[in-house]
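quick q for whoever's on today - can somebody do inverse folding on this one?? i tried earlier but teh output was garbage lol. tokens:
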């Protein structure tokens, strides 16, 4: 395997890095008290990847088993305990644990504990996940089954049930 073709060819470098302080307010707060930080979106990375920090409230639960056809998803646990499903079994993952799920890989995650759980979510290539995060709770509780199906297909999410 080799490096990809260069996208930057000037050779002199440029000032283009973006810094986000840890104290930056979350981009999204859910009804359960969970918070999502949009660290690097598909828009800001030119579609290379999307990186999000999810601070899950105690007993926040999580999505049921699903897979993606066009994006991989990786989980890196920062704090607390996140239950991760790898398509075969559940694992109580803690700080420093990592799970990579390639396209088509069955997976799920949950916070079933009485404490905050925080993790990084990495999607490659980058996809516009912000609308998904912002509307998923509303979709699951207020939309018709037909609209739900359209939304999830639009966001490359395929449920196994």
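ok took a stab at it. sequence:
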């Amino acid at each position: 395997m080799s490096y990809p073709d260069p996208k930057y060819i000037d050779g002199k470098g440029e000032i283009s890095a973006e810094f986000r302080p840890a104290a930056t307010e979350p981009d999204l707060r859910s009804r359960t008290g969970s918070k999502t930080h949009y660290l690097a979106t598909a828009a800001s990375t030119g579609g290379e990847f999307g990186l999000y920090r999810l601070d899950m409230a105690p007993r926040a639960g999580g999505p049921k088993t699903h897979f993606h056809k066009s994006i991989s998803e990786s989980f890196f646990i920062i704090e607390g305990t996140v239950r991760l499903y790898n398509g075969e079994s559940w694992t109580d993952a803690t700080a420093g644990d990592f799970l990579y799920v390639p396209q088509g890989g069955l997976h799920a995650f949950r916070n079933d504990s009485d404490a905050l759980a925080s993790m990084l979510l990495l999607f490659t290539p980058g996809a516009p996940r912000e609308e998904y995060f912002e509307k998923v709770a509303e979709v699951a509780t207020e939309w018709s089954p037909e609209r739900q199906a359209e939304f999830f297909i639009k966001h490359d999410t395929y449920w196994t049930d």
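fwiw The helical segments are 130-142, 145-154. also The radius of gyration is 17 Å. so keep that in mind when u check it
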